[in-house]
Structure formats: C-alpha cells, structure tokens
Design goal:
20% strand; 11 helices; 2 domains; Arc Repressor Mutant, subunit A; single chain; four-stranded antiparallel beta sheet; Jelly Rolls; alpha+beta
C-alpha cells in the first residue's frame, strides 16, 4: 500500500494485518509494517495508537519527543516506543525508516525490560539480526505470501530478544542504573521530609510516569513503596533502642505526617503496632 501522508515519499510502502484470535492470545504479532522515505520536514504527533513501535533508521536521523525526553536517533540506531502514550517524531533532512507496529500478550513485558535497560533509542551490535527479522516480516507482506502467524511471531520475538540482549552504546541512552542509584541516595537523604513522586522524579530530571516505570523495573519497588520501606526501616531501628524516643516522636522523625498514619502503616508492613514491635524487640534483646 502507498501512503498519502504528507512528506512521505512515493516509494514508501506499508501493510496492515489483523491477527487471528489465537495469535492475539498467544503470540507477539505485527499490526502494521513498512519502509518509509521521509522528505525533509516530516513530523508526526499522536496521542495514542494502540501498539508498540520498533523503528530502524536506515538513512538520515529522526528526532523523538516522548515522556519528557527529547533525543535524536542517528543512522543504524533503533527506536522503541509505547504508542499507547503520546509521542512525537520527525526529521529536518531526508530519512529512511523501516518500521514495525506490534502488540501481543507479552509485548509490554518486552518493552519495559528493553527500555529499562537501554532507553528508547538503542545502538546494537546485533543490528543486522534485528533488521533481518524486520525485513523478513516486511517481505512476507510485500510478496503477498501466505502468513504463517507462528513464523511471523518468531521474527518479532527474535528482533525484541536481540534488542533485550544487546550491549547498547547509544550516546542518547539515559543510564538508568545511574539515575536509580542517585534516586535511592536522594530518598535515603530526604525520607524524613514530605517527599512526593514529583519531587523524586524531578530530582532525576524525568517525568513521573517514566521515572516510576524505570524505578520499578530496576528495584522491584514503586518509588512510594521504597520511600515507605525506608521510613519503616528507620523507625524499626529507633524502636529497638532501649530508652529511645516515644512513638510519637519516631513517627514525625521518620517522615510520617501523623501518629495514626505511622501506626497503621507500620502494622500493615510489620504485622505489629510500633509499641508491640518495641516490646517484642526489647524482650528478645
């Protein structure tokens, strides 16, 4: 099919696909695939397109705006986007892009793992393997070949698995491990204060949504859970000190805004009230 989209060259082609009910339940599957020749000044802005998008920059470069991040993907780099969320991309000069919209039961799991490790713009030492898988999907539709969904799904899976396992050297990739390490240190230094998600994400210069996603992928906790765990651990230490502070003072010294909030949260996490925990700890000591 030929695109009528503004500033998409006449040599561009794309193909859409409706997966079977079975494929929708068990496979990763393509929704649309194409190869576009973008003319200078192409720009796309979408609030949502229900799929994930993998792009390979074959020629030129592509500017990306997504989740508060602005970056540029250069020739031979890959872009991976969650198109369920608002996204924008375009180019100043001519560019060629091989692209694949895909979805499936485990698509989000792949997306979260890949982007938490490598960001949304990725350079891969396995780029040819990934590109071959994308090109083979495109060839199937270009040639009007019979679509064997298990085989096509295998190509999607291969491309994503190679991206996941790659050793990325992208200059645009945010070092998520460094960001999270800094955020853990920030929380441990400021947990006694009234911290919000916006405060912690702002310290990392990320949007709250993007920060929460990579924080959870890296630590296994949401930012709020980690903050509460830090406060509870500090309280537990103080409760084990003979002749230590009263429960009320411990509550406020560990960042809780009321004694009742502290006591109910502590019991939810530890199964005991602070006073019960103190009595048990001192008796065992």
């Amino acid at each position: 099919m030929r695109s009528s989209e503004l500033k998409v060259g006449v040599r561009s082609d794309y193909y859409t696909y409706q997966p079977s009910a079975t494929a929708s339940k068990i496979y990763l599957y393509p929704i649309a695939v194409g190869y576009f020749y973008y003319e200078p000044g192409y720009y796309l802005r979408r609030n949502s397109y229900d799929s994930f998008l993998l792009m390979h920059v074959a020629e030129g470069s592509l500017k990306l705006k997504f989740e508060g991040i602005t970056a540029v993907a250069a020739k031979n780099q890959f872009i991976l986007l969650d198109c369920y969320r608002p996204h924008e991309y375009g180019n100043d000069d001519a560019a060629q892009i091989c692209w694949l919209h895909f979805d499936g039961l485990i698509a989000r799991n792949y997306y979260d793992l890949i982007t938490s490790a490598h960001g949304n713009i990725i350079s891969s030492e396995n780029s040819q393997v990934i590109l071959d898988a994308m090109s083979e999907i495109l060839r199937v539709y270009r040639d009007s070949s019979p679509v064997k969904e298990s085989v096509v799904s295998g190509h999607v899976t291969q491309a994503l698995t190679e991206l996941l396992n790659t050793r990325s050297d992208s200059g645009n990739k945010i070092s998520h491990s460094r960001v999270i390490d800094n955020s853990l240190a920030y929380i441990n230094e400021h947990f006694r204060e009234s911290l919000s998600l916006e405060d912690i994400a702002g310290n990392a210069n990320l949007s709250p949504y993007h920060f929460s996603r990579i924080f959870t992928a890296e630590t296994g906790y949401t930012p709020h859970q980690y903050l509460i765990a830090t406060r509870i651990n500090s309280a537990k230490f103080q409760l084990q000190i003979a002749g230590g502070l009263p429960v009320k003072e411990i509550a406020f010294s560990t960042g809780f805004n009321s004694v009742s909030s502290f006591c109910s949260t502590f019991k939810k996490w530890e199964g005991l009230t602070p006073s019960e925990y103190r009595s048990k700890s001192l008796a065992n000591g």
